Amino acid sequence: MKTVKTVEEVRAQVKEWKISGLTVGLVPTMGFLHEGHKSLITRAAAENDRVVVSDFVNPTQFGEGEDLESYPRDIKRDEALCLEAGASLIFHPEVSEMYFPDACTMVDMRGELTAELCGKTRPIHFRGVCTVVSKLFNIVTPDRAYFGQKDAQQLAVIKRMVRDLNFGVEIVGCPIIREADGLAKSSRNTYLDSQERQAALCLSKAVALGKSMAEGGEKNAEKITAAMTALIKEEPLAKIDYVKAVNAETIKPVTEMSGEVLVAMAVYIGKTRLIDNFIFKA
Ligand code: PAF
């Protein structure tokens, strides 16, 4: 496994693999990898001959006042995890390699898919994600690309973008990986002090509650999100951004638990914004 920093090096390596008839999986990440990323890389390694992991904190998906500067970075640690998980190549570019100073093209998605949920508080986020993921697809030309279900809206947005723009890549969504006590794994968990770490459990507890209500036959989506909201509100360090039930594919709000429903939340624990969700198929 090697780490490269330029588009040219990635293209040369992928070309060599493709000439030999090998399939390529891509795992796009912003680094500071954890068990959640590892599960994506392991799956990609099981389903493809070669795996490229991109490790790039993408500035265009961070809004003003967000954590671009403080986002944790540790390429040495990432390299060790990638090697263990079976990656073949890490693409770790500088910002200047990914974005020309006079770049003026972005991939923007209109409608509810990007306007709802995280799009409300992070209005430019999905434009940055769509742009960098399109660039990575063009650079790596993978057969398959792997994304975590924790970012459920991002997964729905990328699937739609791939459909709309005819990218020749299969998108694979992978399950949420949790700590032993239920907290969904996230690079941002490192921001939490010990009191906040404890408080953050209100997200996974709300997920467990919502899921058990849905599985127990509750059909009213608003009753489910209201019960989850009430549970989170019991935690003094938590401030809710949203707790919502939407169609998992279209991200349109739903009132009934029918079809494939994504029940998603974003909650601030102190200054750290965390997300979690579950999908219920009726
Ligand atoms: O999910 C992430 O880590 C990022 O949004 C992604 C897909 C790597 C794009 O920068």
Overview of the molecule:
This protein has 282 residues and is of the alpha/beta class. It has helices spanning 7-19, 35-47, 75-85, 95-98, 112-115, 118-121, 125-140, 152-164, 194-199, 201-215, 221-233, and strands at residues 2-4, 24-29, 50-55, 89-91, 144-148, 170-174, 238-247, 260-269, 272-281. α2 (35-47) links the parallel β2 (24-29) and β3. α7 (125-140) crosses α8. The protein is globular, with a radius of gyration of 19 Å. The mean pLDDT is 98. Residues 28-30, 58, 61, 129, 132-133, 151, 154 line the site of pantoate.
Which stretches of 5+ consecutive residues score pLDDT under 50?
none
Which ligands does the model contain, each kind named once? Answer: pantoate
Approximate helicity band:
25-40%
Order of helices and strands: EHEHEHEHHHHEHEHHHEEE
Annotation field: number of helices = 11
The percentage of residues in β strands lies in 15-25%
Fold blueprint:
Layout: E1 2-4, H1 7-19, E2 24-29, H2 35-47, E3 50-55, H3 75-85, E4 89-91, H4 95-98, H5 112-115, H6 118-121, H7 125-140, E5 144-148, H8 152-164, E6 170-174, H9 194-199, H10 201-215, H11 221-233, E7 238-247, E8 260-269, E9 272-281
Parallel strand pairs: 1-4, 2-3, 2-5, 3-4, 5-6
Antiparallel strand pairs: 7-8, 8-9
The structure holds pantoate.
Pantoate binds next to β2 and α7.
Summarize the structure.
With 282 residues, the chain is of the alpha/beta class. Helices cover 40% and strands 21% of the residues.
Give me some keywords for this one.
binds pantoate; 282 residues; globular; alpha/beta
